[in-house]
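> Could you send the SDR family NAD(P)-dependent oxidoreductase prediction when you get a chance?

Sure thing. Input:
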Amino acid sequence: MNQFKLDNERALITGGGSGIGRAIAESFIEAGAEVVITGRRAELLEETCSELGAKSAYYVSDVADYDANAKLLERIENELGPISILVNNAGVHQKKDALETSEEEFEQLMSVHVTGAFSLARHAAKGMIERGHGSILFIASMSSFMAIPSIVSYSSAKTAVLGTMRALAAEWSAQGVRVNAIAPGWIETAMSRKALNNAPDRKRKILERTPMNRLGQVEEIGTAATFLCSPAAGFITGACLPVDGGASVGF
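Output:
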């Protein structure tokens, strides 16, 4: 079972204050890692860290501020130590018909999910490559694989995430840095619960096309992330693991 441990690892998790990011942080800590969570809301991050305990820290940061990303990694390394795991989890969503989506709105999602995530990966990988050890995890989506109406910006960004992940895996894996992704299915969070409770037909449709006939739990994304960043996944790179109850293969 030591192969599934994250002892002596320090993970940076963007968007770690709530939802999937927080669940990943909790799972990492349980596996022995120290975690650093980031986000734009200081109060939420502080509250989350107080609940995560002594093996957690937080920094207020916006992944779309490219100039700040290098400074963030430098500050963490100087104050806490080197980062050996990066989880690019931060994201924004937008539901809008394509004809009503402006170029600026389209670029906004790309700046967070793709360019911002690449920026952090690039800066984090420098130290990982020097040390010959590291793991970078992107959070993809069901919309990386399937066409879903009215989310053209989100779908485009999440599809690009997979291309970025594969390219980085091909370039950095021989230098000791594995790069992978998780594609969550429909996961039960406070936000999704509220949305689906107000749209029973949509919830029914989701469950009908999910072979396991239920929504996923954030903890199930956390344990999958822990596996992919652990020694147990030491020969896995360039892969996207769907954690979706079979939704990507369901009818």
